[in-house]
Amino acid sequence: MFRKKQRSFDLQSVLSGCLKNRPSAQKMLYEQYFGFAKSISMRYASGSDEVMEMVNDGFMKIFTKISMYDPNQSFEAWFKTVMVRSCIDYYRKNHAKVAFVDVDELHFLAYDDQLLEKISAEEILELVQHLPPAYRTVFSLYVVEGYSHAEIAKLLEINEGTSRSNLAKARMKMKEMVKTYVSDLKNYDNV
Question: Residue 151 is part of which domain span?
Fold first, then answer.
């Protein structure tokens, strides 16, 4: 009965307010883009605490770098780029000791894309969060964001072969997790 009146969202005026460091504009931008930021961060985080840290770090970068946004370009694309890079920075800061596997250590790994068709996107995302940090980061950058191995290598300060091998290992681990998950679903359905 007493619903809070929805404020209309005018991106240009909100961005103008953010440029002037107005807390009300920053709050509106945060509320409007929180879900988008969270969906990006979930691909790189291992749990909800990390997701929230990545989201908050990302918004801090958005607010401090808002003057770098070119109004002639898509705000969502710029926002996504800043969030992805913020997630990578978080990864570097908090998972610096994570070992990447070089391509020389890689053995032939088979991958079955048909398994992924048996579960939902949300279930896949949940499984991605269970990958080790190095695998999860390379997997997300390559499969979800569309970065090349050369770009990933530069972003993560690793060589291309390492990026390729970590992607292959991530896919193999995903395959194992999906098989187990699908098998568990079938067993649950039969109970």
Answer: 103-189
Task: Identify whether 1 is part of a domain.
Answer: no
In whole angstroms, what is the distance from residue 6 CA to residue 116 CA? Answer: 39
Phi–psi pair at 37, nearest 5 degrees: -65, -40
Q: How do residues 148-157 score in pLDDT, each as one tens digit?
A: 999 999 988 8
- The two structure tokens encoding residue 28: 């509106």
How far does Cα 65 stand from its chain's mean position?
A: 20
Question: What is the C-alpha separation between 99 and 162, in angstroms, rounded?
Answer: 10
CA distance 166 to 160: 10
Residue type, position 143, single letter? V
The model's pLDDT over 98-130, given as tens digits with 9 standing for 90+, comes to 444 444 433 433 444 555 556 777 777 788 888
Residues in contact with 64: Cβ distance below 8 Å, sequence separation at least 6, in sequence order = none
57 and 135 part of one domain? no
Q: What is the pTM of this model?
A: 0.65
